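Handover notes (outgoing to incoming on-call)

Open items:
1. Prepilin-type cleavage/methylation domain-containing protein: sequence verified, structure written out, both below. Nothing else pending on this one.
2. Nothing else urgent.
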Amino acid sequence: MKGRKKHKGFTLVEVLISLVLIGVITAGLLTFFAGSFENILRQRGQNTTNFDIQESFETQLADIKKNGGHGTEVETFTYRVGNNSQSVNVTGQTLSYKDNKVKNIHLFAANAKEIPLDIPNDLQVEIPNAKRYYYVGQSTPGGKVGLKDDQQSSKTRIYTESGWFLSDRSIGNDKPGIVPVGNIGSFGDGIVSQTVFPTMPDDFRQITKQDSGRQITDEMRGRYLTFAARAINSYGRVGNYQEAERIWVMGLPLTGNLRLHTDADLALLKNGNSTTRIPTSEQAYTNTEVRDYFNNTLYGGTIPVLNYYDGTIKQARQLIALDGNTMQFSNHNFNNGYTTSILIGNRQQTGPLLTYKLDNSLTWGLNLESDGRIAVKAVDTTAANNGGQEFVQNIKLDYTKDNSIQVRTSVKNGVLGIEVFVNGQAAYNKTLALRVGQTTHNINNGQIIFGGNTYINEFAVYTQSLSDSNIQKLAEYFRDKYKAS
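Prepilin-type cleavage/methylation domain-containing protein structure tokens:
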């Protein structure tokens, strides 16, 4: 018979030690879980408080945004430009959440429209070497913004954003269109121009954020183009836009083969070594600066210009008031074909509006009658014949409105053909023989003369016989130029 096997077990001491260890571990785990649960409860309470704070501030900020805010507290923010410090005061109120058991939070909220960041004294915005007037097809130089004297350094706590802006405002109801506000002279003491000028940035839209030069396109005609920049300091506060010198884009729709161009809206009053806008006084001023703007050439002598306020379009207008004087332009070769386009103002006129002195013995011209009729007169002294005077049939100008007149000439087989368009419609045509008997007229060095008791707002001369469609474009431009759209 085999003996019984012996089985070893845990002694009482071992069991007691195990129980003690399990108890210690369990107690530690219970303490950990209890602390974690307490932290979760505390965090949930903190989140509730944060949400309450956020809701409270957002409610107050929404009220400030809605009602503008009426805080009277003033906080001063300081920023650096170059080596100098500048400050701006902001009016608002301090929003607070007080809970001594949790936290005290204070937030300064400016009134709905904060005082803009002042333009730093040494912020410089410019278009180097830019002209004041541009035509479609031309290009401007690039814009430039920075600190004067190149003092910007790594310590500077100010930034800028810049770009090109185009005015988007027309007369009457603020819709886009051709706007005759080309006069960009400076204000003089006591001078009231009553000219409608777009304001920056309300009447402008940004067309690019690039600083490079802009190609003048058709959509820019009759509008202001400007390069502008604004300051942004390290607190994120944004300043007003600061413009470079404002550019006027000519409204003239055709620039190909353009010989000269004058727009009376741009005429300025000379004042010593400076110029100012001409007052809206109905008085013709003779100490004026009138230019051929296409060639940037100042006309010699003094040309009388009057400025008046037109209530229909709520806009000041300027007219060259010749009052029996003349404006003469030489060295025109009529063999190449010519087109002269004229916009006369809305008032009664008389006298020789336009004369072509083709050579020393042959002239042709348009005379205006007080009753609105247009007389045509040709004089050829070599044939002892003044050509007589005849009237354009079935046409009478309404002097209470603007009138557009185009004269087109061309040479073919020794004959000069002349056509007259009134407000875009063909009204008259005639031919002049360039060879009479033994005499041949040399018309390669003629003169164009404006005169009479006439009032001219704008004129352009082209070294080309323009097509009917292009003449129509000019007539439409003149028709719409002062239209309160």
